[in-house]
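Amino Acid Chain and Its Fold in Token Form
===========================================
What this section holds: a protein sequence and its matching fold, both as plain text.
Structure line: whole-number tokens from a learned vocabulary of local backbone shapes, matched to residues.
Purpose: to set a sequence beside its fold so the mapping can be learned.
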Amino acid sequence: MADEVNPKAYPLADGTLTPKLLNLVQQAMNYKQLRKGANETTKTLNRGISEFIIMAADAVPLEILLHLPLLCEDKNVPYVFVRSKQALGRACGVSRPVVACSITTNEGSQLKPQIIAIQKEIERLLV
């Protein structure tokens, strides 16, 4: 059962996209372009400063996150799920699991090209 992913966790990043996402999360943390946790993530969406959202498909219950995709669609922000909240937490630089994080906008950020590339990959998952 551990490997079963909740079907509501859509779109789910695959084995090639997941490392790219987690790597970008780590870089975003270094550039201070990262907000961790469902509440902080919700705030970035409401303030319109979110580039995209990453959520953990193994959050329990997943319902604690399911307001985020709706908000993302409302605000036209790409979103994606990764399998592991533990891996997401590590990428965020904390030892605790993280169920959601937001990569935030920053004018003149060096991460912009990578952010755009990932946004395109997320959009491809939704086709």
